[in-house]
Amino acid sequence: QHYTDAFAQVNPLRKVPALKDGDFTLAESVAILLYLSRKYKAPDHWYPQDLQARARVDEYLSWQHTALRSCCTRVMWQKLMFPVAMGQPVPPETLAATLAELDRCLQMLEDKFLQDQAFLTGPHISVADLVAITELMHPVSAGCQVFESRPRLAAWRQRVEAAVGKDLFQEAHEVVLKAKDMPPVDATVKEKLKHSVQALLK
Amino acid sequence: QHYTDAFAQVNPLRKVPALKDGDFTLAESVAILLYLSRKYKAPDHWYPQDLQARARVDEYLSWQHTALRSCCTRVMWQKLMFPVAMGQPVPPETLAATLAELDRCLQMLEDKFLQDQAFLTGPHISVADLVAITELMHPVSAGCQVFESRPRLAAWRQRVEAAVGKDLFQEAHEVVLKAKDMPPVDATVKEKLKHSVQALLK
């Protein structure tokens, strides 16, 4: 759907998510989250006013693009979307390298961000936790044991679920967790996707 | 220098840039820029209070990580650092694919962000322009003709230089523009770098 011309009117980058709020359109999930939190005056802890606390959230949001986000997406594609949905096998050494990178990113998530805190950027839940948990659901959906050998991260996941509420937490991840049951994509879609997803094979 | 233990005290991610402000340490250039603009109450245009104008800046800052930033860094490494400083040849088809990606990113920078505006996110200079120009100096330093065939982008570059001031603009890019004259790295540094930079060969 996001390769249609109608969608390009909302987001010329032709990527999801995208927001349309009246005449105003906006791409990029992080920008959208910050826009919504400001527009609806979300409670301070989501994106704190305090100079240093906010900088910690910005630091996470910035780091994750080329680290956790990048490798969670590639794990999902290499382990699930290419072989199952696209019918395109992935070289085992490529997948192995991506999984090793995921492991390094998870270690950094624990050691540099979570540490001994309740949430990734401090004692309260922030948009950083939302961005992180939604990324982590991609390798989980592809069958990776992200939390099983990482008790600190598993406890954090429980705290995020409790803070968000069990129902909303499930609803937010419903689609991604069902990806393994999706039917193979048809030839037309495969042709459209071909070029744009090849970079995810690296 | 950023692989030393002393630097890891400031930034456990062992990456530059990093900021140390009293006891407070912070990584990630975007987070550092926003921190400094808030701490020193920079004029509004750098990161506007207006809801939609700020969202435009956030959108750019978010987009560039996996787009312009990622390919500018890879161009610099594949065209200059690997072959010249590291003495490691880069497969021509790898470099060609990266240069094609740079071209697509530049096109998006013009079509989706700059459009017919004076600056990337609107009529005034913002942190988005600073982040963009510093990234673009990497392929420029590696000998790419980034602005030559793109008059709209070249005019924007002139406006950024004028807004920042010629001297500061030059000073900010002095090191990166001298990269081609740096001596080959010695064996110890090469060994330290080896693993961390291999991803830039993709």
TrEMBL record, chains A, B:
Sequence ranges assigned to domain GST C-terminal in this UniProt record? 50-184
Tell me which EC number(s) this protein carries: 2.5.1.18
Q: Which top class of enzyme applies to this chain?
A: transferase
Parts of the chain that traverse the membrane: none
Q: Which PROSITE patterns match?
A: GST_CTER, GST_NTER
Its localization reads: Cytoplasm
Q: Which domain of life is it from?
A: Eukaryota
An annotated GO BP? glutathione metabolic process
Describe the location of the GST N-terminal domain by residue ranges: 1-44
Keywords assigned: Cytoplasm, Transferase
Q: Name one GO molecular function term.
A: glutathione transferase activity
The record's annotation in InterPro entries points to: Glutathione-S-Trfase_C-like (IPR010987), Glutathione-S-Trfase_C_sf (IPR036282), Glutathione_S-Trfase (IPR040079), Glutathione_S-Trfase_N (IPR004045), GST_C (IPR004046), GST_C_Theta (IPR040077), GST_Theta (IPR051369), Thioredoxin-like_sf (IPR036249)
* Recorded GO CC terms: cytoplasm
Primary location group: cytoplasm
Quote the catalytic activity from the record.
Answer: RX + glutathione = an S-substituted glutathione + a halide anion + H(+)
Q: Does the keyword rRNA-binding apply?
A: no
PANTHER family, A to Z: GLUTATHIONE S-TRANSFERASE THETA-3, PTHR43917
- How does this protein assemble? Homodimer.
Family of this protein: Belongs to the GST superfamily. Theta family.
* Protein's recorded name: glutathione transferase
> What gene, per UniProt, encodes this protein?
LOC101596685
